[in-house]
From TrEMBL:
Sorted UniProt keywords: ATP-binding, Kinase, Nucleotide-binding, Serine/threonine-protein kinase, Transferase
Enzyme class: transferase
Protein's recorded name: non-specific serine/threonine protein kinase
GO molecular function, a single term: ATP binding
Catalytic activity: L-threonyl-[protein] + ATP = O-phospho-L-threonyl-[protein] + ADP + H(+); L-seryl-[protein] + ATP = O-phospho-L-seryl-[protein] + ADP + H(+)
EC number: 2.7.11.1
Domain Protein kinase residues, every copy: 71-338
Keyword Disulfide bond: no
GO CC annotations on file: cytoplasm
Lineage: Bacteria, Pseudomonadati, Planctomycetota, Planctomycetia, Isosphaerales
Domain of life of the source: Bacteria
């Protein structure tokens, strides 16, 4: 059996293509060539039959794990300690979705999560689903349902093309203040919609904010949101709920009492990161960052426009009552600033 024949067997066994379709597609490939598998893989990627992610897995010998129920897994979108997000194609209805997948249970044969950890993640998934039922907004990624297939639990979510703000900063560096302000103006109606029904995001950060190809904002990941009527979530290993780089001082001690201005503080941290290329209190341990959010004043670049710095200073005030009163009030303030600074 040639290497190409083995590769074809694996593809057919995976269910990604039928043997007949493979044979037809790979007809131009000479099977005895030393680089036949490379040629075949390149051709199948170019024709859109397979993705680079799928080919890489197949070439390591894997023939399973390419589907979750009716969804074909195309490529990873993001991953973290508690879940991974995959781009998937709906084989029944067509179109693409994002699947947020819980890692498997630990067993004697594989690493994974214990039951308590898995249940904590699922509680956040159910919270995301509940928020999606209460608030529908074009700047918030939709969550369709929670599924379980052969012991694998996952959320089926709207796929938002584009890049996260985190990825944008990493690839291209800081933004101009006007661009950052315009992004916030586009995003803030989503926060207004959440706050109107008593929902506080509690984890605004560049990794949870998308920039679409059309230049729009989109808000992701409401798994840590404060939602009226839902029970409290457990704190993390640092004794907080949220991300140390972007957490409001009052959320550190009282995560279930934080109000809308807590989200505005976090958005102030995001805007600071966008224009400076780093969070307000970068570096150090999570505990050091928490202390700085309580007591320190961030340093601003000398060339930052004074009135934009003033808005950031207001957003990053330690006392909630010193910040803008609401997301809509902040939006009006930023919108006016953008109009008066056409070239910033």
């Amino acid at each position: 059996m040639t290497d190409l024949s083995l590769f074809i067997e694996r593809v057919a066994a995976s269910g990604l293509m039928t043997a007949a379709a493979l044979k037809d597609r790979l007809r131009p490939i000479e099977p005895t060539r030393p680089d036949a598998v490379d040629q075949a893989a390149r051709l199948l990627i170019e024709t859109g039959d397979l993705t680079p992610f799928q080919v890489k897995k197949l070439r390591t010998g894997l023939t399973k794990g390419f589907f979750l129920g009716r969804w074909r897994l195309m490529r990873p979108l993001a991953s973290g300690g508690s879940s991974r997000v995959m781009l998937a194609r709906d084989e029944r209805e067509g179109g693409f979705v994002a699947l947020k997948v819980v890692p498997p249970r630990a067993s004697e044969h594989r690493q994974g999560l214990d039951d308590d950890h898995r249940e904590a993640i699922l509680a956040r998934f159910r919270r995301e689903l509940e928020v999606a039922r209460r608030v529908i907004h074009p700047r918030i990624a939709r969550v369709f349902r929670l599924e379980s297939v052969e012991g694998v639990d996952f959320l089926v979510m709207e796929y938002i093309p584009g890049v996260s703000l985190e990825a944008s900063i990493a690839a291209h560096g800081p933004w101009k203040p006007r661009r950052a302000a315009r992004y916030a103006v586009d995003l803030l109606p989503a926060l207004t919609a959440l706050h109107a029904v008593g929902i506080i995001h509690r984890d605004l950060k560049p990794a949870n904010l998308m920039l679409t190809p059309q230049g729009h904002a989109c808000l992701l990941d409401l798994g840590t949101a404060l939602v009226p009527g839902l029970p409290p979530l457990p704190l993390d290993d640092n004794g907080i709920l949220g991300t140390p780089d972007y957490i409001a001082p009052e959320q550190i001690d009282h995560p279930d009492q934080v109000g809308p201005t807590g989200d505005l503080y976090a958005l102030g941290c995001v805007l600071y990161c966008l224009v400076c290329g780093r969070p307000p209190f970068a570096g150090g341990s999570p505990i050091n960052k928490i202390v700085k959010h309580r007591f320190d004043t961030p340093l601003f670049p000398e060339d930052l426009e004074p009135d934009f710095r003033e808005m950031l200073t207001s957003l990053l005030a330690k006392e909630p009552h010193r910040r803008p009163a609401s997301a809509s009030a902040l939006r009006a303030q930023l919108k006016a600033w953008v109009q008066h600074h056409p070239s910033s």
